[in-house]
Write a structure and sequence with these properties.
The protein is of the alpha+beta class. It is built from five helices and six strands, in the order E-E-E-H-H-E-E-H-H-E-H.
Length: 141
């Protein structure tokens, strides 16, 4: 699925959904985003401090390689519980990814690390979007 938008500046461009554009345009660079929400589970809480640190050191080493894949960390942070409709999860990760292959590589690495065994975790992913497209998608939902 794609939408062709009128001009941006002097050049027409395609807003690509699903990594391809039938018009062959390469003027618009698509990005994927990954949102993670997670909370330490009982297994993590029972893990001795030394083993926690060893696991986190392994994660840190793996994360150092992500920029080589074009993966950008936008934020890794504790969530704010004092907002309307706050998530029950304690932490969030927000990533910008150059394509679905990078997204899949990141998700595979997270899984392979054993992360999901230590954290109650949920992922959401999507592509670049704007208000008009989003409202249109909502109207059709």
């Amino acid at each position: 699925q794609f939408t062709f938008n009128a001009s941006r500046g002097n050049s027409a461009y395609c807003k690509v959904k699903q990594n391809h554009c039938p018009c062959g345009s390469s003027g618009f660079r698509r990005a994927d985003y990954l949102v993670e929400l997670y909370t330490p589970n009982a297994t993590w809480k029972a893990l001795p401090a030394e083993q926690r640190q060893q696991f986190l050191s392994t994660i840190q080493n793996a994360m150092n390689e992500l920029s080589n894949l074009g993966i950008e960390i936008l934020t890794l942070a504790e969530t704010d519980p004092d907002i309307d409709q706050a998530s029950e999860h304690r932490f969030l990760g927000l990533w910008r990814l150059p394509d679905q292959q990078a997204r899949d590589t990141l998700l595979a690495g997270i899984k392979a690390s054993g992360w999901y065994g230590y954290f109650d975790h949920v992922n959401a992913t999507g592509a670049d979007g704007d208000v008009a497209d989003h409202l249109g998608d909502l109207a059709q939902a």
